[in-house]
Automatic annotation (TrEMBL):
HAMAP family: ArgJ (MF_01106). The record marks 189-190 as: Cleavage. One of its GO terms (molecular function) is L-glutamate N-acetyltransferase activity. It comes from Neisseria dumasiana. It is an enzyme of class 2 (transferase). Catalyzes two activities which are involved in the cyclic version of arginine biosynthesis: the synthesis of N-acetylglutamate from glutamate and acetyl-CoA as the acetyl donor, and of ornithine by transacetylation between N(2)-acetylornithine and glutamate. It comes from the Bacteria. This is Arginine biosynthesis bifunctional protein ArgJ. The active site is at residue 190. Its main location: cytoplasm. Pathway: Amino-acid biosynthesis; L-arginine biosynthesis; N(2)-acetyl-L-ornithine from L-glutamate: step 1/4; Amino-acid biosynthesis; L-arginine biosynthesis; L-ornithine and N-acetyl-L-glutamate from L-glutamate and N(2)-acetyl-L-ornithine (cyclic): step 1/1.
Length: 406
């Protein structure tokens, strides 16, 4: 059961000029289920993208990276679910290229202008013939249909829209979809995220923006600490909003666009955690006053990855020892534990190397009974901070992953 996450209605999602969405049934996932999505972009768009850092990254990831490097412009994103085309060797690579060629024939572009994405079972050959046969029969669709079509173990389609004035005279629209519920860990995990906006941004600037946004959203979540083979995050800018191009990061509009798209990406990323496999609680881990941002992330992820911490949250057990132990093994150098302060919600639970005098078990229990919990750590070592989002670890997580082959 997803934690405070509901499916968006079609009317809640904005159309974006310069982008068209099509979906259909290739018969990869299940009979009579949409499992193939095509996003067609206008010729003058720009693309920013980041990909999984798993060394066994899937064939479509390799192909997408190569096509982006060609600098010929991207005209389409094609996404299949039900098969990851990962661990498939040379044939997997050729299968991904075959899909790109088929899409190119359908929309009238070069194969190098197509980015392929796959998600689903690993080590199984991609049923290319099914995908190629389904492409001519894809139907125009809305963004919420696409969000549902890219799901695997997700229980709720993940989509969001925002718009904001960028500069003096132009409003920029942005809509995004994402999928993911397990194998979620920083540096991209089993998730796909796509945002399309009508801003006018040069490709180098959009790539920098995409990386910055990913670091604060999709690279700041963890469900189970496993990093997958296929994950990708893409921002496409169609340039249709009527503004002049943003071609350097010193342009004041850059920060305005970062706020718009960053907020949208964070909403999508958090929705993945809220729909984490078997999740019953959404947990925010904030680490403050670290010597560096990397140090803050180390501590945050030590807490967020800990199975003992996560099972304590599932049990609504204010087990302070597990939290302090995670901070202690996070790998900080010259670490003075007496300076650490720890909060559960608004309750100060630890300081001066031990339990806070003001803390009561009742106060901790009240926080742990909630379905949204914030853990805050003050290291008192500097001025840097980091925030990570995670969920609890329940019996259902084990059941889901015992029954589903990755």
């Amino acid at each position: 059961m997803a934690v405070n996450l509901k499916e968006k209605y079609a009317a809640e999602l904005l159309t974006v000029d310069g982008a068209q969405v099509f979906i259909g049934q290739a018969g990869i996932k299940k009979a009579a289920h949409d499992d193939l999505t095509l996003i067609v972009l206008n010729p003058d768009n720009t693309i920013g993208a980041v990909f999984t850092q798993n060394r066994f990254c899937a064939a479509p990831v390799h192909i997408a990276q190569e096509h982006l490097a060609n600098e010929n412009g991207i005209r389409a994103l094609v996404i299949n679910t039900g098969n990851a085309n990962a661990g498939t060797g040379i044939k997997g690579r050729e299968d991904a290229l075959t899909v790109c060629r088929a899409v190119a024939r359908e929309i009238g572009c070069e194969p190098e202008q197509v980015l392929p994405f796959s998600t689903g079972v690993i080590l199984e050959p991609l049923p290319t013939s099914k995908i190629v046969s389904a492409l001519p029969n894809l139907k125009p669709a809305h963004w919420n249909d696409a969000a549902r079509a890219i799901m695997t173990t997700d229980t709720v389609p993940k989509s969001a829209s925002r718009e904001s004035r960028i500069g003096n005279n132009h409003t920029v629209r942005a809509t995004g979809i994402a999928k993911g519920a397990g194998m979620i860990c920083p540096n991209m995990a089993t998730m796909l995220g796509f945002i399309v906006c009508d801003a006018n941004v040069s490709q180098p600037v959009l790539q920098m923006l995409t990386q910055e946004i990913a670091d604060l959203s999709f690279n700041a979540i963890t469900v189970d600490g496993d990093t997958s083979t296929n994950d990708s995050f893409v921002i496409a800018a169609t340039g249709k909003c009527g503004q002049n191009e943003i071609d350097n990061i010193a342009d004041p509009r850059y920060d305005q666009l970062k706020e718009l798209l960053g907020g949208l990406a964070l909403e999508l990323a958090q929705s993945i955690v809220r729909d984490g496999e078997g999740a019953t609680k959404f947990i925010t881990v904030k680490v403050e006053n670290a010597a560096s941002r990397e140090e803050a992330r180390k501590v945050a992820y030590a807490i967020a990855h800990s199975p003992l911490v996560k099972t304590a949250f599932f049990a609504s057990d204010p087990n302070l020892g597990r939290l302090l132990a995670a901070i202690g093994y996070s790998g900080l150098e010259n670490f003075d534990t007496d300076k650490v302060r720890l909060w559960l919600g608004s309750a100060l639970v630890a300081e001066h190397g031990g339990r806070a005098e003001s803390y009561t078990e009742e106060a901790g229990q009240m926080v742990m009974n909630q379905d949204e919990i914030t853990v805050r750590v003050d290291l008192q070592r500097g001025g840097e901070q980091a925030t990570v989002y995670t969920c609890d670890l329940s019996h259902d997580y084990v059941s889901i992953n015992a029954d589903y082959r990755s």
